[in-house]
Amino acid sequence: MVRVEGVGEVTDADFGFEVLSGERPVLVQFTAEWCGPCRQLAPVLGEIARERADRLRVVQLDVDRNPGTTAAYGVLSTPTLMVFRDGEPVWQTVGARAKGRLVRDLEGAGVL
């Protein structure tokens, strides 16, 4: 998993506390070490995390190391992006995308 400034890491053990009980929306990237598109998306997520820190928290979850959460949310492909608000998933997409498109998608979903 690519470490990115501004993007946290969550696990099966702390997902409930870090994501589901958050006061602001949380964008979770379900990722893996071997995932090329995940590596391409990482800097985009880092920029969004830094620029929109007041409105959105961004974290990564390694699907290979955290099979419980991955299975619980039916994640079958990486990168899967999922936004949680008030403990519930409210938006989801699969695949890497350019920053502009991702921001527009998040704005259209009422996340940003």
Overall description:
Keywords: Disulfide bond, Electron transport, Redox-active center, Transport. GO terms for molecular function: protein-disulfide reductase activity. Belongs to the thioredoxin family. InterPro entries: Thioredoxin, Thioredoxin-like_sf, Thioredoxin_CS, Thioredoxin_domain. This is Thioredoxin. The longest helix is centred in the middle third of the chain and has 16 residues. The protein contains four helices and five strands; from the N terminus they run E-H-E-H-E-H-E-E-H. The chain is of the alpha/beta class and 112 residues long. The chain has one domain: Glutaredoxin (3-Layer(aba) Sandwich), CATH 3.40.30.10. Strand 2, helix 2 and strand 3 form a beta-alpha-beta unit. The protein starts with 7 loop residues before the first strand and ends with a helix. It has a five-stranded mixed β-sheet, covered by helices on one side.
The number of distinct helices, counting runs of at least 4 residues, comes to: 4
Mean pLDDT: 95
Order of helices and strands: EHEHEHEEH
Determine the fraction of residues in helical runs and give it as a percent range: 25-40%
Number of distinct beta strands:
5
What best-fitting shape do the alpha-carbon axes yield?
Answer: globular
**CATH H-level homologous superfamily name:** Glutaredoxin
The neighbouring-strand order within the major sheet is 1-3-2-4-5
Find the structural class using helix and strand composition: alpha/beta
Sheet having the most strands: 5 strands, mixed
Distance between the termini: 25 Å
Strand content is 15-25%
CATH-level-2 architecture: 3-Layer(aba) Sandwich
Look up the CATH topology: Glutaredoxin
Number of domains: 1
Rg from alpha-carbon coordinates: 12 Å
Poorly predicted ranges (pLDDT <50, ≥5 residues)?
Answer: none
CATH class reads Alpha Beta
GO molecular function: protein-disulfide reductase activity
Family: Belongs to the thioredoxin family.
Protein name: Thioredoxin
Pfam family, one: Thioredoxin
